[in-house]
Amino acid sequence: MITAEKLATLTSFTAGALTRAIRVAGYKRDTFETAKFVGITNGGQFCYSCAFVDEDEEMDVCKVFLTYDSADGTVTADY
Asked: What is the rounded CA–CA span in Å between residue 47 and residue 38?
């Protein structure tokens, strides 16, 4: 079960927190400028819309997905 407290945490990640999460996942050069929680996928992942500066120095948008493992309390990110 995901508690109300954990749900509040998983739906309020900042751009900085998501940047740290994807760095742990292996994306060492990416940095998000903005992050907005958009919903929970059918598979139970927490989805964020994030903006970043691309190679052409233009703002681009992507989706970041957080996976919460209730067995050990870990959160992993991917996009």
From this structure: 6
End-to-end CA gap in the chain: 25
3-state secondary structure of 71: coil
State pLDDT tens for residues 16-25: 999 999 999 9
Cα separations in angstroms, 6 against 1, 11, 59, 72 = 10, 9, 31, 13
Tens-digit pLDDT profile for residues 27-74: 988 899 999 999 999 999 999 999 999 889 999 999 999 999 999 999
Triad 68, 13, 9: Cα angle to 5°? 60
Alpha-carbon distance 40 to 57, whole Å?
A: 30
Q: Is 79 helix (H, G, I), strand (E, B) or coil?
A: coil
